[in-house]
Structure formats: structure tokens, C-alpha cells
Design goal:
With about 350 residues, the protein is of the alpha/beta class. The protein has 2 domains: about 140 residues, N-(1-d-carboxylethyl)-l-norvaline Dehydrogenase, domain 2; about 180 residues, Rossmann fold (3-Layer(aba) Sandwich), CATH 3.40.50.720. The chain has 13 helices and 10 strands. An 8-stranded mixed sheet has the order 5-4-3-6-7-8-9-10, with helices on both faces. The structure holds nicotinamide-adenine-dinucleotide (NAD).
Length: about 350
Amino acid sequence: MRAESPRLTRAGPGRDSDPRDNGPEDFKKSRRGHYPSPTPQTNKPNSNAKHYPPIRACKSAPPTVSSIYNNTLYHKLTHPMHINRIAIIGAGTMGRGIAQVFAQAGLEVLLYDSDPDALAQSLATITERLRQQCVKGHLQEAACATALDALQGIERLEAIDADMIIEVVPERLDLKLDIFTHLRQVAQARTILASNTSGLDISALAQASGRPDKVIGMHFFNPPPIMPLIEVVRASETSEETFVAVIALAERLGKTPIPVANSPGFVANRILFPMINEAIYALAEGVASAADIDRVLVLGASHPLGPLALADFVGLDVTLDILDSFARRFDNAKYCPCPLLREMVDRGELGRKTGQGFFSYP
Ligand SMILES: NC(=O)c1ccc[n+]([C@@H]2O[C@H](COP(=O)([O-])OP(=O)(O)OC[C@H]3O[C@@H](n4cnc5c(N)ncnc54)[C@H](O)[C@@H]3O)[C@@H](O)[C@H]2O)c1
């Protein structure tokens, strides 16, 4: 029975239990003997994976929220803030996709990464993606040139002149707090500071920033150029003006903004990541192969992508960080990451970005 799982018991005051705390034998027993060592058997090349349908954009997003804000608050503000120049901090999986979205929407984009190689690689990737869109006829030659002109890599974070700065560094609160503390000094007073966090506390970032009313969550989904949703996370400190400006910006990008509260994981990830975690437990317990677990969700629940392929796509390190933060913030052991996930991350199997996760990506 579920309630007997050690994931739901307490290891001590204020601390969620981790099944590994009791040693591998106890954990194995607790999983009813179905916890094989995570051998590469689980990571065999999966010929079925390539048959998964591509991620599709949802065309039926409800128009209600954005139109309410458009018709009321936005037009009532005397000087609604218009955002034209964006700086993005972190040029990894998400940062580069977000930069592409802004550049294609006609905004000026400054892209920064603490790793100069990552920055150069991201600029090259965005250029290649835009050119590919031209070749396929999805983007006019002139629009491609305009987007590329609008995009600029920067090597330093000092004296950034931008209407808005979006932080897109890894999902670690300490790292994000350092950045918001630094921005307190270097960003102009008018600048809105947003985070693309998957579920960390926006209020904590707001406090670090020294301008809490101008801090907000703008949670894009992967891949940003394709996924239509942006969760707009309003902390208690976020001003009406900041909120409305970001809703309007999201609409300018052609996305559907949905306001959500500043609660761990917001809406999407609070639901998605426990599901991914459970899929990893099912794999670790030998309930089915990775390919079959995913096929069950694709064929039985109409998911466009199975949970394990989704975890590979997101990055297993990011997935682990998100589940760890849920376990801490909800103070509930049911969110503790499956040990198999942690072991894969320790081995450097991070999913698509390293070529190996639950599936192989040659
Ligand atoms: N990967 C996803 O599917 C996904 C989806 C939605 C949201 N997110 C969120 O987006 C954020 C970034 O995730 P990602 O998948 O793009 O991570 P990533 O690891 O691919 O990229 C992070 C980038 O940040 C850079 N970086 C690290 N420290 C930095 C610093 N101090 N200053 C500047 N750059 C720094 C790294 O060099 C790297 O290029 C996380 O908060 C994550 O939760 C991720």
C-alpha cells in the first residue's frame, strides 16, 4: 500500500526521508524487491523513441485571462510599460530558445552566459535555427535578418540598459539569489527582473533584488519557440504595473500567458514532475521497460511525449533539482526524487544534452 512506502515517512524533525538514508537493502525491501540496480539495461537504445509524435502547440488555449487584462487593467494604466529591450542571463537550453522568441518578435535581445563557450554555442545555434526556418519557408529572409540583427551576445553584466532582464540559469536558489543580488547594483531602476524558474520562490528573488515590486516569474516551456504557454508568476510583492506589462509582453510574443500563484512548481510542474518521478519509480521497480512506460502514457493518456522521454528532454539534472526543491518546500516526502534519478545524474547521464538518459541520443 502506498502509505507504507518509506517515501512517506519522516527521517527526523524538519527533514523529508530519503529512502536511501536507510541503506540500499532497506530501500530494496521497501520497494517490494523490485528495485534492480540501475544498470544500463534501462538505457538501451530505444528504436521506438523516434516514432513519438513531435511536441504540438496547443491551439485551444482559453483566451479569457489575457483578454480580461487587455480590456481592463492594461488600458486603465496611464503609462503602461512597454518592453522593447531584453537581457537574458543564461544561454543554455531555455535561455537560447527564449532569446530566439524575443528576437523573432522584434525585440532587442542581449544574451549573457558566465561560460563564454556556452554563449558562443548558443548564438551559433540560434543563427542556425533561424536560417533553417528560412530554408523551410517558415520565416521570410528579411525577418530572419532582422531577428539576427536584434540579437547580441554580451560578455559582462555591468550597467545593463534593458527594460527587462530574464534570469535563466540552473534551477538552484543560491545561484539565482546571487544574480538578483548582483542585479540590485547593476540594473537600472526602471528594469523589470523576471525569472524563468520552474518553481522556486519568486518572493525570495524579489527580496534579494531591492525592487520587489518589479520582480516576477515568466515561466516559458521547452522548447520556447514552439510551446504556447507562459506561466506568469505573481508574488505578493509584484506590482500591478509589472504584472500587466509582462502579460502584455507575453501576448506580443504570440504566447498565452496564464497567471499563477507563487507556489512551488506553480501549476504545470507541480503536476508533471511527480508524474515523471513515479514513472522513474515504475522503471526502477521493473514494472515495465522505459520505452513501454512511455508508450503507456502516449497511447493510454494521449500524452504527446512519455514522461521518461520528457525528463530526458528537460534534463535529468534539472528534473532532480526541481524534485529536490519540491520535497524541501512542500516539506513532504512524497516528492523525494527516486534514487535511480540521482544515480543517473551522478553518472553524468543528463538526458538529451549528454546523449544518454533513459534513452540514448546518438
Ligand atoms: N530545461 C527545461 O526544459 C526547462 C523548462 C522550463 C524552465 N526551465 C528553467 O530554466 C532555467 C534554466 O534551465 P536550462 O535547462 O536552460 O539550464 P541549462 O543548464 O541548459 O543552462 C543554464 C545556463 O546558465 C549558465 N549559467 C550558470 N551560472 C550562471 C551565472 N551565474 N551567470 C550566467 N550564466 C550562468 C550556464 O553556463 C548554462 O549555459 C532553470 O531555472 C530551469 O528550471 C527549464
